[in-house]
Amino acid sequence: MKVQCVLCDVLHELEDNALQAKRLRNRRIHMYLCPECYERIDNNTKKRHATGSFRLYDPKEKKRDLI
Q1: Could you list the residue range(s) of the whole structural domain that residue 24 is in?
Q2: How many CB atoms lie within 10 A of CB 40?
Q3: pLDDT tier at 12 (50, 70, 90 boundaries)?
Q4: Does residue 36 contact residue 45 with C-beta atoms inside 8 Å?
Q5: Rounded to an integer, what distance in angstroms lies between the CA atom of residue 45 and that of residue 55?
Q6: pLDDT band, residue 67 (cuts 50/70/90)
C-alpha cells in the first residue's frame, strides 16, 4: 500500500497486511506520518514538556445545581 506523509509529502510503501495499513484503510480520518516527521514532532513535544510551561487544557465541566 502506498502512503504519503501529510507533512513532508514523501511517498512510502507499507505492507498490505500491516496494522497501520489496515487502520488507514478502515478509518479514513487517520493520517500517515513518516518515521522522520514522527520523531521530529516527538522530540519537539518532549522539549516543550521539559520547559514546564506546556499545558493541556481540559474542557471545564459545567456545575449542575439540581444534582
Answers
A1: 2-51
A2: 14
A3: very high
A4: no
A5: 11
A6: low
Q: Evaluate whether residue 56 is within a structural domain.
A: no
- State the pairing for strand pair 2-4/11-13: antiparallel
Spatial CB neighbours of 23, under 8 Å, sequence gap ≥ 6: 30
In a domain, 59, yes or no: no
C-alpha cell at 53: 510551561
Dihedral angle over CA of 5, 9, 10, 11, nearest 10: 70
pLDDT tens string 42-58: 999 899 889 888 877 87
Alpha-carbon distance 37 to 7, whole Å? 7
State residue 36's pLDDT score: 94
Split into its structural domains, the chain has a count of 1
Beta bridge partners of 16: none
